[in-house]
């Protein structure tokens, strides 16, 4: 049996390609149809606008107030006359009723000289080198200066032991220490210039109280003249 068709002429071989091409063309036409827009034809009229360069506005009319001009300055005289002082002016002297300063000075000079007594500075001689030490009450019968020194110191210790009183607050707080009291026996035998140096204010106050209770003494002498004698004494506060 003879074959009537050419085996190379197979139409189904490229059918897929043709189908894709045809589908693409159809989709393109559909897309263009959807994107196509139609416009209604209308008549457009263009108005001509005239541009004006300057816009003139009517400014309000205001009335100007006229002020009178200032008066002209006075004219200078043509000729200046120089008048000489012919008449003498009498000087008026005002006399004061108060006494002048010169008169006061003269009156002061005329007063008799006033005698002013110059206060002599009190001489201070240390206790260790003074010729005659201050005499503590009870040491008057001693003759030599060394005996009076020893008696003075003994009486001083007895006075401290007799008048010593430990501050109660210092005992409660456990405060103790040594207070050095500086003072002087002036030319009249009085105790002056008491100054304490210690570790606590309460102890210092008690030491000052003891020294201020010292009796009045016979002042010390240097070359037969009463002088001030500085002295210092330690007072120890110790709890047993």
From TrEMBL:
The keyword Iron does not apply. InterPro entries: TonB-dependent_transducer (IPR051045), TonB/TolA_C (IPR006260), TonB_C (IPR037682). It is a single-pass membrane protein. Pfam families: TonB_C (PF03544). The keyword Cell membrane applies. The chain crosses the membrane at residues 16-34. Keywords: Cell inner membrane, Cell membrane, Membrane, Protein transport, Transmembrane, Transmembrane helix, Transport. GO terms for molecular function: energy transducer activity. It comes from the Bacteria. This is Protein TonB. It is found in: Cell inner membrane. GO terms for cellular component: plasma membrane protein complex. Its main location: membrane. GO terms for biological process: protein transport; transmembrane transport. Belongs to the TonB family. Residues 151-240 form the TonB C-terminal domain.
């Amino acid at each position: 049996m003879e074959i009537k068709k050419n085996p190379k002429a197979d139409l189904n071989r490229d059918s897929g390609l043709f189908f894709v091409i045809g589908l693409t063309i159809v989709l393109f036409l559909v897309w263009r149809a959807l994107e196509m827009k139609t416009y209604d034809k209308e008549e457009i009229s263009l108005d001509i606008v005239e541009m004006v360069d300057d816009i003139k506005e009517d400014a309000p009319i205001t009335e100007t107030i006229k002020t009178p001009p200032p008066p002209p300055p006075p004219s200078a005289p043509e000729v200046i006359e120089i008048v000489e002082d012919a008449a003498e002016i009498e000087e008026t002297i005002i006399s004061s009723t108060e006494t002048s300063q010169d008169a006061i000075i003269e009156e002061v000079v005329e007063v008799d000289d006033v005698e002013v007594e110059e206060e002599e500075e009190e001489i201070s001689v240390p206790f260790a080198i003074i010729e005659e030490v201050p005499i503590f009450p009870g040491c008057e019968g001693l003759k030599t200066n060394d005996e009076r020194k020893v008696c003075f110191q003994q009486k001083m210790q007895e006075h401290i032991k007799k008048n010593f009183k430990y501050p109660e607050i210092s005992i409660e707080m456990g405060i103790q220490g040594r207070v050095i009291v500086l003072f002087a026996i002036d030319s009249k035998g009085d105790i002056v210039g008491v100054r304490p140096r210690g570790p606590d204010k309460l102890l210092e106050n008690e030491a000052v109280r003891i020294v201020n209770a010292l009796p009045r003494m016979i002042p010390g002498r240097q070359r037969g003249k009463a002088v001030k004698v500085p002295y210092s004494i330690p007072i120890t506060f110790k709890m047993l």
